[in-house]
Amino acid sequence: MGFVSERALQNLHKYAYKGVDKSPLSKYVLNPFWTWFVTLWPLWVAPNTITLSGLSIVFLNFATLFFYDPAYLAEKGGVVMPNWVYFSCSIGLFLYQTFDAIDGKQARRTGMAGPLGEMFDHGCDAMNTTLEVIMASQALNLGRSWWTVASQIATLANFYLTTWEEYHTGQLFLGAFSGPVEGILIIAAIYAISGVYGMLTFLRLTNVPVVKELPDLPLNDAFMVFGAFGVAYNLQSSYRNVRQAMLASGKSTTQPLLLLLPFVVSAGIQVFWLTHPHYNNSAIINSPLFVPFLCAWGLQFAHQVGRMILAHVTSSPFPWWDWMWVWSLVGAVDANLPMLVDRAPIIQTSETNRAIIVYLTLAVSFAAYGRFCTLVINDITNFMGIACFTVRKKDKDGNWQESVPSSAPEDKKKS
């Protein structure tokens, strides 16, 4: 027991997952499919193995896309992606959603449901968020642009809001239209359309059949407008649920709003770094460093929300501070020295040095998040006497036992 305190670990016994999904699509179409699909998995497959398998598919899609477009230039640089790459991204994202939906069902089938599963699930979701932003922006032909940065901010904000809401209300709330359900299917559809028409630059809303009187916008611009409305809706929806929970418990309804500031601060630091003057005719947003920068940002965000989820399942104080802010702030201030004090950067003095600091930031962010995941998994599995990737539990004598006997009837295997 090193990373997580003994008191916090004791609170794991009080944890119980609560979720609300009001999506008609999920209830009447997807959930019956998920209920059937989970039966295809043997009971010896651990739920976290299913979750990690889904994320591995996304990593494969990500690697494939950058094999063909390593500089993230798309058609602007003369790179034309094979259509099958977009189709594979569409299928991969749908599979990720499916695997992400059935891991909880598998946990109940095998008697492995618990706080570790929620943390592992949310951790994979947090990493997938940035990967999908990068891939979807490529499919939408946004590429190295502030539109992609705006997409990153909006998508991470939605994830942060959901986690912030769950921390205060004690349950995961998915409305009639949510990112994990309809949002993912929309992105999968964008990949599929890109596979048919190429990147979405010229395909316009006015060409969409059935619906008339639409503004004459390209689908990529229309998607960005839709995303902005989505963030605004989720903000008021999440706060409404949090406010109701605070009123019911007799607590302040404004104090939770202060806990949105950590996201504002972290995102502000990243944007500040990206807005640095074009010293030596170079800028991160216009260079191949753009994608590594976004990946480092995504890993730091995953670390941030991972600590929020840990605080939720252990009934611990909300994490206000993340030490990775200092690292990124140093890089941002250094890059902006020409604007702040009219002098050249101290560290990022050349394109080579800038590349070194960006890739070093990526490495440090990966190491920090990897360390967090490893320590938390070790502490929880040791405390609860469970394994992360096998369906096993420790008995009272400390010996490993199968969580569910393979010979047990199906109805007795469900918990």
From TrEMBL:
GO terms for molecular function: phosphotransferase activity, for other substituted phosphate groups. The lineage of its organism: Eukaryota, Fungi, Dikarya, Basidiomycota, Agaricomycotina. GO terms for biological process: phospholipid biosynthetic process. InterPro entries: CDP-OH_P_trans (IPR000462), CDP-OH_PTrfase_TM_dom (IPR043130), CDP_ALCOHOL_P_TRANSF_CS (IPR048254), CHOPT (IPR014472). The keyword Transmembrane applies. The keyword Translocase does not apply. This is Choline ethanolaminephosphotransferase. Coiled coil: none annotated. Belongs to the CDP-alcohol phosphatidyltransferase class-I family. Pfam families: CDP-OH_P_transf (PF01066). One of its GO terms (cellular component) is membrane. Its main location: membrane.
